[in-house]
Amino acid sequence: xxxxxxxxxxxxxxxxxxxxxxxxxxxxxxxxxxxxxxxxxxxxxxxxxxxxxxxxxxxxxxxxxxxxxxxxxxxxxxxxxxxxxxxxxxxxxxxxxxxxxxxxxxxxxxxxxxxxxxxxxxxxxxxxxxxxxxxxxxxxxxxxxxxxxxxxxxxxxxxxxxxxxxxxxxxxxxxxxxxxxxxxxxxxxxxxxxxxxxxxxxxxxxxxxxxxxxxxxxxxxxxxxxxxxxxxxxxxxxxxxxxxxxxxxxxxxxxxxxxxxxxxxxxxxxxxxxxxxxxxxxxxxxxxxxxxxxxxxxxxxxxxxxxxxxxxxxxxxxxxxxxxxxxxxxxxxxxxxxxxxxxxxxxxxxxxxxxxxxxxxxxxxxxxxxxxxxxxxxxxxxxxxxxxxxxxxxxxxxxxxxxxxxxxxxxxxxxxxxxxxxxxxxxxxxxxxxxxxxxxxxxxxxxxxxxxxxxxxxxxxxxxxxxxxxxxxxxxxxxxxxxxxxxxxxxxxxxxxxxxxxxxxxxxxxxxxxxxxxxxxxxxxxxxxxxxxxxxxxxxxxxxxxxxxxxxxxxxxxxxxxxxxxxxxxxxxxxxxxxxxxxxxxxxxxxxxxxxxxxxxxxxxxxxxxxxxxxxxxxxxxxxxxxxxxxxxxxxxxxxxxxxxxxxxxxxxxxxxxxxxxxxxxxxxxxxxxxxxxxxxxxxxxxxxxxxxxxxxxxxxxxxxxxxxxxxx
Length: 713
Prior knowledge:
This protein is an alpha/beta fold. Helices cover 28% and strands 17% of the residues.
C-alpha cells in the first residue's frame, strides 16, 4: 500500500517551523526539546507533552479499546489486520485528543505522538519486554510494524492522523536488569541481517515520524547518542526525515551508568550532536549551558527544534480548527460497539492451537453437563492486557467468557487452583491450599479447562513488574509457582484436560505437550479475550494463529542471555528441534496444497521468482489458512530457511483457491561478515505450505511443505 503524504506539504511545514524557531530565544528553544514542553504564548505555541503510548490501543489515558498484546497481534501473521488495528487506535486517539483539547488538558499521555510500535527482535524468550514486540523474525516484524505505523499515521495528503515511533533503536532485547549500563556487542552480519531490517522498513516504507533510541550501548556507543546509528545509518544511509527521541531518562545513563561522559553537560552534548532531537526526561535543560560553552552549535539545536515543530505541524495542531479532517472525529467512537466487535475478532484470530489430541476441540455443548475451570489466570484481568495498556469499560476473563457462553445449560465449577507464583493463595494457609478443591472440581466435571501462565506482574519492563523476579525478565521458561503441580492433579482425575496458556512469551511445557489433551496459546488476549477463547473452545471460531516465537523444551538449551550473537537463537539459527516451532499452529479444518510450481525463476527480473499453488480446505469448517513461504540457501553458515512471504487465505469448507506468490531479489540475499548484502551463487530452496519446513513442524502437522529450487550461477 502506498503512502500519499505530500512531500511538498512537508517542505512547507518545515519552512513554517524554521520561521517559528527563528523567533525563539535560546532558552525557549531548549524548553521545547524535552517531552513536557511549556507554552510560548507570545508565539501562539500551546503547551504539549510528547509522551504517549499506543502499543495495542491508546494507553494510560482513560477508557479505550484494549486490543491483544503486540505478540498476540503478531500471531495473526496478518499485515492488513495490523493496519486496520492501527487505524482503529488512531481514530480513538484523535477522538480523545479532540475531547482533551476542548477541556484544555495537555497532560502526559494526552498528545498525538505515540511511542509505538516496538520493533525490537524477541531474541531470547526470557526477555520481559518480548511481549511488546512482533516476535523473533525480522520479516514478520517488518511487515507488521510497517502496516501498524500506516494505520496510526493514516493516508491523508496533508496531515498525519497520529505520529508513530519505531523503538528501541537498536539491538535491544534485555536483560532488563542491566539495560542502563549494558553494551550489546553485535557483529555487522547480525546487525544487518537481524536487528536493523524492521527499523529500515519502518523508515523507508512506512515513513515513520519518530525513532526512539535504546537505553543500552551498541558496540560501545550509547544508542541515544550514537553517531553510527542516529547519523550515519538513520539519517544518511536511510534518509530519515522525522525526529529522534531518547528513551526516558536514557541520557543521564551516559554519565551515571555507561560512564562514557563526565557529567550532564557532556551527555546532552553527545546526544544532541549525534542526532537526538527530543529528551524524554529533563536533562536537556543543560543544553543552554552547552550552547553557551560552545559544546553544541546553536544551528544543531535549531535543526532539532525545527524537526519537532515540523512534526507538530504535520499533525495539524497549528492550523485552524476544522481544516484537519481528524478534528471532526467525535468522542463517541471511543469504546463503541464497532470497536468491541473488532477487538473480539482480533482476539479470536490471535489464538494459537498447539495440541488437539483426538480432535477433543471444539467442545460439543450438547454432550457436556459440567465444566471445571481451574487456574490462577482463569479469572485474572491482568492476564488479559499485558503492559502499556489502556482502561477497558469491560473485561471478560476466560472464566467469565465460558460462563457467558454456556449460560444456564452447563454447570461451570471454578477453582483458582493456586496463586500465580506463590505457594499458597492465602498468607495464613499452608502451602498448596487449593489442592483439595481442584480435585473436587475435576472429579465433578466432564472436562477440565486449566488457565495457567503469566501476567505483566511477572514479565515486563524493569521497574514495572511487581514480583520477586524484580527485573521483569523471566529467570526460566517454567510455569511459576505451583501451576505445574495443579496440572498434574487435574491429569490424575482422568478427565480430559485443556490447557489455556495466557503468557506473552514461550513457556517450556514439554510435560504438558506429552500428557494433556489440548493446548491453546492465548497470549494476553485483550479486554474481550475471555469471549474469544470461549468461542474458540466451542467451535464458533476456527483457530488460525501461528507462533511468532519458538517454544523451546528447556531453559538450559538457550545461549547466554547477554550474548547478542544470533548463533543458536530463534528458528533461523537453532540446530535442535523446538517443542513448538515458529510458524506453527493447528486448525479445526484441514488444508491441502497441490500443483505448487515455479512460473518464473528470474531472480533478477522485475517480477522476481513467481510461484503458483492451489490450496483446498478439505475439512468441515470454513477457515483462514496462513500460507508461509521460506527461502533457504545451501551454504555453510547460512541461516535456516527464513520466512519471506505470507498470504492470509480465507477458504471455505470444500473450496479450492489458487494463489500466486512473487519473491523479489532481496528475499534471496544475505549479509556477509562485513554487513554487505550479497546474492550468493548456489542452490536456493523455496518452501511453500502452512508451516516452516523444519522436521518438528512436519512431525506435529503430519503435512509436508512443498519445495522448488532456484539455482543462481
